[in-house]
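Pasting as-is:
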Amino acid sequence: MFDRYESGERAVLVHINFTQEGEWADLSEFEMLVSSAGVSTLQVITGSRQSPHPKYYVGEGKAQEIAAAVRAVEADIVLFNHALSPAQERNLEQLCQCRVIDRTGLILDIFAQRARTHEGKLQVELAQLRHLSTRLIRGWTHLERQKGGIGLRGPGETQLETDRRLLRERIKAILRRLDKVAKQREQGRRARNRADIPTISLVGYTNAGKSTLFNRITEAGVYAADQLFATLDPTLRKIELADVGPAILADTVGFIRHLPHDLVAAFKATLQETQEADILLHVIDASDDRFRENIEAVNDVLVEIDASEVPTLLVMNKIDNLDNPQPRIERDDEGVPKVVWLSAMDGIGIDLLFEALTERLASQIVEHSLCIPPQLFGRIRSIFFEMNCIKQEEYDPEGNLLITVRLQQVDWSRLEKREAAVLRDFIVT
């Protein structure tokens, strides 16, 4: 279907710094991505520009340098630490006579290698097809042009049009199957809400130690490795917290700077666990010099998936790599735990994490009494009934519903946004 050069395992890396961007991409992180994909780096080519070149992304001279390097080291592939347009990819491939893949394509390839569950494979395929849809080029040349006249009439649609139609149909089929997965996950969340079981979701930059922490807390045996995107498929386990009872801990995919938008869209069902969580454990590699930038990158993704308002507890992990590892809890001015310093690998400070989680979750349960008039209580009561948060209800002589509800603060905040007028006017306490 695709007239492209075959990919290989030996690569030339290209990394360009743009002075006008104000933020230089991290070359070392790109090299880790390449290593995680199982590709050998033969040569790294760097350079600086004011802005991308429209034809090759890099300048004409730098493009010739890349092509010469490919021939000199006999590389199979060129990997760019940037997002290339389809035209730039094709121009570079014609010049280098080998496959050219940008940062987005590399991340998608890593995800394709890591996918284990049926859902994960579907999500990765969806992201790959969306990325590929703009990169379809000349297929079988003898079918490419439609012609007229006796003996020259074409097939009715060009091969490129056929490829695009097949691609669209496959994307629609995957979306239908993922929609079923999303409904199944939604049923699971409803069951947990009815049972009043809080959900704790692990988020963080890739390779921050989320799966190691998850295994330390739950003894789940989830695959954990010192590589980017070791975890792809989400895993949920039940844990016990003092004064709170059972809770669900969810391990999720790691985030990264410039995470491909197609990937975020494809993993919508998985990331829903993060959106609907009662509290997020934002795991941070405390030994990484760029941990503040990593925090910002994670926060940007949380905004993109509408999870930025979920209460968050920061977990400074890997303190065993610091000079003076001291497990501790940092609190805000009101004494609420905000940061926990620990080492998931050595198990240092895990008890402090449980203590902080217990405090945060116990303090997030609110109780309100409402007096709702007859014309409204049918709809409002059904909402509370579905959330399984009704503690007590009775009717006064005027026929008003006196109802007491007990639920998580985050659920009350979401409800307040949807039913602001009703709840504001009829809250008693």
